[in-house]
Amino acid sequence: MRDAVIVEAVRTPIGKGKPTGALHGVHPVDLLAHSLREVVHRAGIDPALVDDVIGGVVTQSGEQSVNLTRRAVLAAGFPESVPATTVDRQCGSSQQAVHFAAQGVISGAYDVVIAAGVESMSRVPMGSSVLGADDISGTGFAERYPDGLVGQGISAELIAARWGLSRTRLDEFALASHEKAALATKNGAFAAELAPLAGLSTDEGIRTGSSLELLGGLRPAYYDEALAARFPEIGWNITAANASQINDGSAAVLIMSGAKAAELGLTPLARLHSFAVVGDDPLLMLTAVIPATRKVLSRAGLGLADIDLVEINEAFSAVVLAWADDTGTDLAKVNVNGGAIALGHPLGASGARLTTTLVHALRERGGRYGLQTMCEAGGLANAMIVETL
Q1: What is the pLDDT of residues 323-355, one digit of tens each?
Q2: Cα–Cα distance for residue pair 217/323, rounded to 1 Å
Q3: Between 374 and which of 31, 101, 168, 313 could a Cys-Cys bridge form, CB atoms 3.0 to 4.6 Å apart?
Q4: pTM of this prediction?
Q5: Which residue numbers delimit the Thiolase N-terminal domain (predicted)?
């Protein structure tokens, strides 16, 4: 049976997703092109060998519309013969790209493929793809959910309430994310994965010097009087501090068969071991990481005790803490270099960013198995296991 291995994985530093952010001046096509160019350069391969490039983008409008990935391939200087496509599984778009790429290699459809992702939230604001749309769901959806769904911030509030997560615990997790990211940056833990761009060489959103007292003074980010009446159980504990940031960035992962890597004289970073994707309650929206984790472990024939490191997207502290409580995961091996609360969450890039961080951290720490999972809008989640070689 064919396998799929990662031979290189890179990402840009993550910039603040605002006009004053360091990467705001970089067009999203060029932002992705930078990671694409860098991943083949570091591997030392001819980009003409790439059978396909699969890119994740969430807000596919304006500068990020019309198959951005194809334009990025051409902007990176790849031969015109290299094809590309763009996928959308919301926040998990580029993790899905990794899944599709690996599955294509395992099936024999590809020998060499790049999975990547990008989001320039400072240039293409979140939600701009639905501007002007009076109805994005249609009649059948409305009939099934007559009370309507809610935004992700409210879903995070509902999760915090259901799992009994206090404001203090949410803020403690957020502080720890920044502390781990700051330490990882200081110690050079990200050096092997970063491809500096536009004068930015480290992640721009990491904060130091905060405290529980300072975080405790922040107002709830999503309080709504009507929703408070609809959901009286909500404690209104989600703030800007215990939620992920708005960011710009890109990442790229070079995947090929083990036989192709050997033919090219390349040493793989890891093998892509097992995959899962699941759906869950679209009102809670962000809880599918729990069944996704169980499904991928079952497929792999592994237990949580076998997993050395976990990268789970920190969309909100509440998501990670509910997942950890429900699965019994030891937080000491979760997001060991910080997560999206500190590093940032450039939507379409985050899946490939987590993969990049995970495989480099596994090798640095001598771990064997890594688990990656992400919650996604609509009550979805991807999960996968990688194995170092």
Answers
A1: 999 999 999 999 999 999 999 999 999 999 999
A2: 26
A3: 313
A4: 0.98
A5: 5-257
